[in-house]
Design goal:
Distance between the termini: 30 Å
Number of helices: 10
Largest sheet: 4 strands, antiparallel
Number of strands: 10
Structural class: alpha+beta
Shape: globular
Order of helices and strands: HHHEHEEHHHHEEHEEEHEE
Helix content: 40-55%
Length: 294
């Protein structure tokens, strides 16, 4: 069914499927039971087993590292990338890995409809710099390993052209509609009961947007689930107006929290403030993609 969707639409999203690669689930449990969640060898086997089971010849991985990721350091991320590429070569698969640091969310939004609307705006040409960098870097690598375009600059130009001429947005519309979604909702402003402004307490520079505390905020708002039975507030989330490295002034609105709950507002503001670290020293903006291996 998934392969047919790829044939018909040219794209698809596949959620985790039980029994697709039984060894993957066993390896995941094993890692947890023997306290080896961060073991690179077991992570490699777990990741590759499911990808190989799908039967694709070209596989692209984003490997994130940082304090709140499975992989904590850049050297470990490089080791994982090397293992994935090595296994790919052994089984005649084209594998490419890009390594990124998880020190802030990509883009400005975290939530359900909030993120989907951000995608709509990005593909309409309103794109934050880090999203543009990610799309161009990842997209050009994918076009390369699939032998669609071997020249990186030309590949990036192809991607830009398809965003500018509206083809990328049309593809996104197809993806949404063919999976039962209402694409028209993304054209409208987000409607929630409460929009809570988060202001900078002092002058300075954004040093970090703490991803772990952001996840805790999202769970509290109902933007993501603690367990499968939890209800989602699809309008809940947070939109950051600033990124790491940006200058801020005391009292400036640096984020907005969205929630449909009247009883969560005070704590939500407090938790949102805790996600943002401000330094009195200038913070250098880092490149999104740290390393590539294929």
């Amino acid at each position: 069914e998934f392969r047919q969707k790829l044939t018909d639409d040219g794209m698809g999203i596949l959620k985790s499927i039980r029994n697709l690669a039984p060894v993957e689930e066993k390896l995941y449990k094993l890692r947890h039971e023997i306290a080896c969640d961060n073991n690179i060898n077991l992570i490699t086997a777990s990741i590759m087993s499911q990808k190989v089971a799908l039967g694709f010849d070209n596989i692209f991985f984003e490997i994130t590292y940082g304090d709140y990721a499975y992989i904590k350091t850049l050297p470990d991320a490089k080791t994982l990338a090397k293992y994935l590429v090595y296994i790919g070569k052994k089984i005649n698969k084209n594998v490419c890995c890009c390594i990124t640091k998880l020190d802030e969310p990509t883009g400005q939004c975290f939530g359900n409809i909030i993120e989907l609307r951000e995608i709509y705006k990005c593909l309409s040409g309103e794109m934050p710099k880090d999203v543009e960098e990610t799309i161009l870097e990842f997209g050009s690598k994918i076009l390369n390993i699939s032998k669609t375009c071997s020249d990186e600059n030309k590949a990036k130009a192809m991607i830009k052209e398809n965003i500018q001429n509206g083809e990328a947005l049309k593809s996104f519309e197809t993806l949404i509609k063919n999976n039962g979604g209402n694409f028209e909702l993304l054209k409208e402003d987000i409607e929630v009961k409460n929009v809570l402004p988060i202001t900078a307490p002092t002058d300075g520079y954004i040093a970090e947007i703490n991803v772990n505390k952001l996840r805790m905020l999202a769970k509290f708002l109902g933007a993501i689930r603690n367990k499968r039975s939890d209800n989602l507030d699809i309008g809940a989330g947070i939109v950051y107006n600033k990124k790491v490295g940006d200058a801020v002034k005391a009292g400036e609105i640096i984020a907005n929290v969205y929630t449909n709950s009247d009883i969560k507002t005070e704590k939500a503001i407090s938790m949102a403030n805790e996600t943002i670290v401000i330094s009195n020293k200038k913070v250098k903006k880092s490149e999104r993609v740290k390393f590539e291996l294929k």
